[in-house]
Amino acid sequence: MAKQKEPLVTHIFTADPSAHVFNGKLYIYPSHDLEHDGADNDDGDEYQMEDYHILSMDDVDAPCVDNGEALHMKDVPWVSKQMWAPDCAEKNGKYYLYFPARDKDGIFRLGVAISDDPAGPFKAEPNYIEGSYSIDPAVLVDDDDRAYVYYGGLWGGQLEKWNSGSFDPVGGELDGHYDKNRDAVGPMFAELNEDMVSFKTEPKHLVILDENGKPIQATDEDRRYFEGPWMHKYNGKYYLSYSTGTTHYIVYATADTPDGPFTYQGRILEPVIGWTTHHSIVEYKGKWYLFYHDSSLSGGVNHRRCVKFRELKYDENGKIITMKPYED
Ligand code: FUB
Questions:
Q1: E strand or H helix that includes residue 200
Q2: Most buried of 111, 202, 225, 253, CB within 10 angstroms?
Q3: How far apart are CA 102 and CA 135, in angstroms?
Q4: pLDDT in tens, 207-227
Q5: Could you please report the per-residue DSSP string of 10-35?
Q6: Strand pairing of 262-269 and 208-209?
Q7: Cβ of 136 less than 6 Å from ligand 1
Q8: Ligand 1 atom 2: the closest Cα is on which residue?
Q9: With contact defined as beta carbons under 8 Å apart, do 136 and 124 qualify?
């Protein structure tokens, strides 16, 4: 039986959970961490994933089922390595698995694979989404049926290497190419076409403002965007949540429209065991849940993580109540 704040599965290492309710059931789309003894580095070379396994639960206290391999790298023609954090969206009865991976030139791109079943198996499109780069896609199908993808990650996710408009292998967030007192690199945003496999709009950076209406600065590591975006709606507002990377928080910002500008609101989750923190938020049977990961199952190995979940609460003003992973 699944238990809150415990690993959802222990027979494989899992991370980066994107949770959705499809046909009344909970589906979790995680990364599948592999065991190896390679060293960690700032490019994330230790995250060597090759395939996806989709998890599902009939209810929050039902057993968590591993539905087996849903997509493997060998079946995606454009991928060379590192299938990182995925997401899934449903449109007109079809399920679209979005995933980042390195192309044959070592550049992270976003791919899509399609299935009639939310648990897969999925069949990949022959090429990545034209115009896509970086990692961590999260897709919102809005109430009016328009679909938006949020994505991007610094460092290993290469987002800052596109600051000049094209890929600069030595480009960096704060490496001297750029003024240190500059606005943080925001996550990417694009609307998807009705076909769900191509961009309808030119991708753009989202802006996250502080309490004074000023863009969050690149040096503000407690609040600036790093990776792992998620979008959900609560009482008609758009909640953009993400990881701050180097400071290991899950934080959020809100807006009245899907592309902002967003205003920073606060922390959702304090740091977990392990370097990365990555999450999703989903409503199920009238309650809200945070899906997240830590490295507790491996005793703290950064690239051997496990997916967990717990209830998330809002206060009467719509603020998310901050959670401490091991104390409350
Ligand atoms: O799992 C590989 C990468 O680590 C993800 O893409 C990031 O969000 C971080 O969790």
A1: none
A2: 225
A3: 9
A4: 999 999 999 999 999 999 999
A5: SSSEEEEEEEEEETTEEEEEEEEE--
A6: parallel
A7: yes
A8: 84
A9: no
Q: Indicate the DSSP class of residue 183.
A: B
| Residue pair 186/204 in contact by the 8 Å Cβ criterion | no
pLDDT at 259 over 90: yes
- pLDDT above 60 (res 115): yes
Residues belonging to the chain? 328
Pocket test for ligand 1, best of 14, 29, 31, 298 (most atoms within 8 A of CB): 31
pTM value is: 0.97
Does ligand 1 have an atom closer than 6 angstroms to the CB of 15?
A: yes
**Mind listing the pLDDT tens digit for each residue in 136-192?**
999 999 999 999 999 999 999 999 999 888 999 988 777 655 556 788 999 999 999
How far apart (Å, rounded) are the C-alpha atoms in residues 6 and 38? 27
Task: Check if 173 is active-site.
Answer: no
Dist. CA 155–CA 266, nearest whole Å: 23
What whole-number distance in Å separates Cα of residue 242 and Cα of residue 100? Answer: 16
Residue 175 pLDDT: 62
Longest dimension (CA), the chain: 52
- Looking at every residue in the chain, the average pLDDT score rounds to 96
